[in-house]
Amino acid sequence: MQKIIQHIMLAAAGILALGACNKKLDIVPEGAPTTGNFWTTDKDAIAGANAMYEQFDNENFYGRGFWWFINASDDMVTGRVNGQGDNIKNFNRNFLGGSYTESQWKLRYIVIKRANDVILQVPGIEMDAALKSRILGEAYFLSGLMYFQLGYTYGGVPIVNRDSLLNDKPIPRAASADVVYAYAEKELQQAAALLPYFDQLAPADYGRAHKTAAWAYLSKMYLYKKDYANAEKYADSVISSGRHQLLDNFSDVFTIASNWSKEYIWSAYSTSQGPSGWGSILPGVMLENKGWGEYNGWGYYTPTKELYDAFEAGDKRREATILQPGDTFTFFGEEKVYSSLNSLSGYQFRKYMEPFSYANAIHLSPNGDHPTTDLNLPLLRYAEVILIKAEAKLMQGKNADAEINMIRHRAGLANVTNADMSELKKQRRCELAGEWANRHNDLVRWGDAQAAYSQPLHGYNGSVVWPARTFNPAVHNVWPVPQSEIDNGGGVVKQNTGW
């Protein structure tokens, strides 16, 4: 991925010269590039592929912006006062037009535009066949992944397929999320057919799309579609590939040394190198506000007592996931006893704190306003694939004890028999807390969000830190389309009902 970063700015400049997403409306398709100086060599193909990843460095892509949607769950609270974030968590439309989430739509359509350019242009370039296949697979993968994320966030969104690039008319929204998922399904299937396995990539190309990542996202998407047979099928494809396994120790998953471990499937590549580093800023965003005077932590997204109490006694994951007052941890080479004057709940997520443990801060960006680290943010890991298979089996009336007990065993818990969906839900919550797996989306797709959010949330001392909220599934199962897209859409793009 270092190779990608080194060439991204030059590549992005070249791609942008050919036409970027429309400044006014990001679902207006672009015409084909007209320059005769690009898309002619293998270097152009590589540059075009690298440019697809450029948006991942935007702090709102896999850093803070989208996390406001994830923050809606009962596992966490805003952490410190933030009016925009508070409105999002409370499903209050007042955040429209001015929040950190406003760019989420646009950023993903930029990736889609660049992926479409690669898919249209690279087949005509004379180049090594294996490299061409990999580059096209990356484009199909990123296109499919972006549509999957757009679909579960906003519902039916405009599908800017390759045919749409032949005209300049705005594109109306798809009828439903299922239509979007059907398109993403084809993209991800094509990606899986073209991509190599991760262990076939050179280390300089780690972070690029690969075959089991495509299968893993297909399996997850099928859960959202309630197509449980296919969810099980593609989870099995990942498992039977033999390329992945659970690490022995849960806490080791969230270490720099394990960025590319057997448990890795897809993550937000991050590095502290350079004036502002690269990649996800989430570890710094979740760190204690002002970092106890040693680093510019932001103090957002703190765990709730509800999450802490969800862990069984003896569950090793709790200590690795959450810091509570009195816990010891290592910070800049020194042992500290955790306490906070800023955390709204009194807790802090611990999963992403390993980069802050080193005495010489070699794994941290020196720019605390863009606090990247050398720890990759897990977006989908092997443990989730196992849980996807377990859920898919349960929803088909099958027994999933083997899969659930794999997860429980690593956590130090005894085996269970005849596990049901209640157990599955608990294991997803405890295994994936504070991760991109997104508990809010889980609650929505299970039909549990309304009941969960009707209860207040509590902090370490038992006091209410967030009041009960009103969640209307008819409205709040999807988020509102960014106001800028509505305002500039000429009536083509309509707002989601109720927002």
TrEMBL record:
<feature type="domain" description="RagB/SusD">
    <location>
        <begin position="262"/>
        <end position="499"/>
    </location>
</feature>
<keyword id="KW-0732">Signal</keyword>
<dbReference type="Pfam" id="PF07980">
    <property type="entry name" value="SusD_RagB"/>
</dbReference>
<keyword id="KW-0998">Cell outer membrane</keyword>
<comment type="similarity">
    <text>Belongs to the SusD family.</text>
</comment>
<dbReference type="InterPro" id="IPR012944">
    <property type="entry name" value="SusD_RagB_dom"/>
</dbReference>
<dbReference type="InterPro" id="IPR011990">
    <property type="entry name" value="TPR-like_helical_dom_sf"/>
</dbReference>
<feature type="domain" description="SusD-like N-terminal">
    <location>
        <begin position="99"/>
        <end position="223"/>
    </location>
</feature>
<keyword id="KW-0472">Membrane</keyword>
<dbReference type="InterPro" id="IPR033985">
    <property type="entry name" value="SusD-like_N"/>
</dbReference>
<dbReference type="GO" id="GO:0009279">
    <property type="term" value="C:cell outer membrane"/>
</dbReference>
<dbReference type="Pfam" id="PF14322">
    <property type="entry name" value="SusD-like_3"/>
</dbReference>
<protein>
    <submittedName>
        <fullName>Putative outer membrane starch-binding protein</fullName>
    </submittedName>
</protein>
